[in-house]
Write a structure and sequence with these properties.
single chain, alpha+beta, Rossmann fold, Dna Ligase, domain 1, 20 strands, globular
Length: 433
């Protein structure tokens, strides 16, 4: 790949000010699913950005390689034994399902994509599907690109097929009739509008759907029930990943007794999303000891930032803190995470005396936008929504500050455009899938 091809995405991210997301249309689409009716602009003013994020096709290919490398590693019995040894007992239950909406989060760097973390029940997929029907072309190249992309209806069909596959893996040919979208006090969750979108998608495909708190679910002798109605599948949005809280007691028993298909499940979090696993995935020697292939180790070593447990040698960690990003092992949504250069002595003491992991600081790429006052700069995370090792959807998150926060004016979820340079006699920008 030539230098111009490597730089074309960066050039556009710094110089293209086109607004490609029709925010009024997008908000209208989402509000049509909200019950009771409400203004998404008033409740979530910074959920979406108008700006697209441009990515080099080589970076997309490398992200696919990284995901394949993680999948190959996770499926090794030696790896599973290593990470499950310290996982909660409930992780020992091995469901037949894969787990919906795995989230692989990347930062784009000059050396390629860097996998900063993996999440189960990654939020935002239904919202980003809605974005696909609210795109407007700003130039011929963008128009050609959008013509090649799947519609929101196609993406929704793929999502429903994923849930049906989870069901069939566990229950065979029986029809999937009911889904419970479960989170703690769901109406108070920031992504509650997404739950309502999911409910609308399921019901438009002939599957009854309910949005419920886990405490509303009831155990029967042979199934899980909601106000007397049998629940076939639980779309698990809880951040109580191992069903430890009292409010999750019914789900814990239902999982243990296989009374409903629960996806994603505790084992998926233990194998993929516990941040301690990044220390193993970034350690070539440890991976070699588990029998991981040389090619897989090379991909992971190049793409997973060095990660360690942040304990012991407190003064050394303090001196080197600016080179690290500190995360709780079972954290989610950037909660409790700290850039080392932002740490106070007080918070640092809590970090090194806790169970934090330290990840080599990997600054995100940037997206610029011209304003009357000059250039406004956003940081960029790229999320790949993955099922059974396959990328279903990619989306970016634009933000300012230490972590993604959906509080940045002009920031939020943003569509991704994959770009390259046409090699014709008269080179021009060509946008392609």
């Amino acid at each position: 790949m030539t230098q111009p091809e490597r730089n074309i995405a960066e050039m556009l991210n710094r110089g293209c000010d086109c607004a490609v997301t029709d925010l009024p249309k997008l908000r209208k689409t989402i509000e049509s699913a909200l019950q009771p009716a409400q203004s998404i602009l008033e409740t979530h003013p910074h959920l979406f950005s108008e700006l697209p994020v441009f990515i080099d096709p080589a970076h997309v290919m490398q992200m696919r390689r990284v995901i394949d490398a993680v999948e190959a590693t996770v499926h090794l019995p030696t790896y599973q034994q290593a990470v499950l040894r310290h996982a909660p007992t409930i992780s020992g239950t091995e469901p037949r399902t894969s787990g919906v909406f795995m989230g692989f989060d990347f930062h784009m760097t000059e050396d390629g994509p860097k996998l900063i973390e993996i999440n189960t029940n990654a939020g935002g997929a239904f919202l980003n599907v809605a974005v696909h029907n609210a795109q407007k072309a700003c130039c011929l190249a963008a128009d050609e690109y959008l013509a090649t992309q799947p519609s929101a209806a196609q993406l929704e069909a793929n999502i429903v097929a994923m849930f049906r596959r989870e069901w069939s893996l566990a229950r065979g040919a029986r029809p999937l009739r009911t889904i419970a979208i479960v989170d703690l006090e769901p109406a108070g969750q920031f992504l509650y509008p997404e739950f309502q979108l999911a409910k609308k998608v399921f019901e438009s495909n002939g599957i009854r759907a309910h949005i419920v708190d886990p405490s509303e679910l009831e155990l029967a002798s042979d199934c899980l029930r909601l106000r007397g109605e049998r629940i076939d599948l639980v779309y698990n949005r809880l951040t109580d990943f191992y069903f430890d809280a009292p409010s999750s007691h019914v789900l814990r028993l239902a999982h243990r007794r296989d009374l409903a298909v629960i996806t994603p499940h505790p084992r998926a979090h233990a194998l993929y999303a516990n941040k301690r696993n990044l220390a193993l995935l970034s350690d070539p020697s440890a991976l070699a000891g588990l029998g991981v292939s040389r090619g897989t180790i090379e991909i992971l070593a190049r793409s997973v930032p060095a990660t360690r447990e942040a304990r012991g040698c407190a003064e050394t960690w303090w001196r080197e803190r600016k080179d690290w990003f500190f995360k709780p092992p079972s954290g989610y949504g950037s909660r409790g995470t700290y850039r080392g250069d932002k740490l106070t002595r007080r918070v640092f003491a809590e970090v090194v005396n806790g169970e934090y992991i330290a990840q080599e600081l990997t600054p995100p790429s940037e997206r610029w936008r011209a304003t009357r006052e000059g250039k406004e700069v956003f940081k960029v995370d790229v999320r790949c929504y993955v099922y059974a090792g396959n990328i279903q959807l990619m989306a970016a998150r634009l933000y300012q500050g230490q972590t993604t926060n959906f509080r940045t004016a002009g920031g939020g979820f943003a569509p991704i455009y994959v770009v390259s340079l046409d090699r014709g006699d008269n080179p021009q920008l060509k946008v392609r899938a």
